[in-house]
Amino acid sequence: MDIKIDDLSGIEVIKLLNEHLSDMHATSPPESAHALDVDALKSPDITFFSAWLGGDLQGCLAIKQLTPQHVELKSMRTSNSSRKSGVATKLLTHAINFASDKGYQKVSLETGTHEFFLPARNLYEKFGFTYCEPFSDYKTDPHSHFMTLDLVEKSYNKSKHQTN
Hints:
Elements: E1 2-5, H1 11-27, H2 38-41, E2 46-53, E3 56-65, E4 70-78, H3 87-101, E5 106-112, H4 118-126, E6 130-131, E7 144-150, H5 151-163
Parallel strand pairs: 4-5
Antiparallel strand pairs: 1-2, 2-3, 3-4, 5-7, 6-7
């Protein structure tokens, strides 16, 4: 799979993001749907990744810089034809490694509380994300879970694991 920084100009990517927005608005009240549209994702503080296999779009994920030490994951989406095939795991691994390589110390995210979001929450938990209080401009919301991953701790555990 080829994961690349994307300029959000391709029709396939725009279509996938529109599907993402539709699902977010269908599963969460308007005040609790925090997904960004294509124009917002083109912000200079966001790095947007798309994942391709044989010329077919598999998924996408964005990283938004909150501070020089802290980033937020946004717009994680796997194409319908690629669900349960490991695409989300590969995208999340890529994003965490990218953030770590850029010197960020923490990765956080907001996701929904509804059953629809359970596979995403399970994936984040598998990667070591823990539940936390709202961060950045978020407020406590019964429709939102907030999660975070300490990259400094992850890096330490990774190096410790390699020496044993």
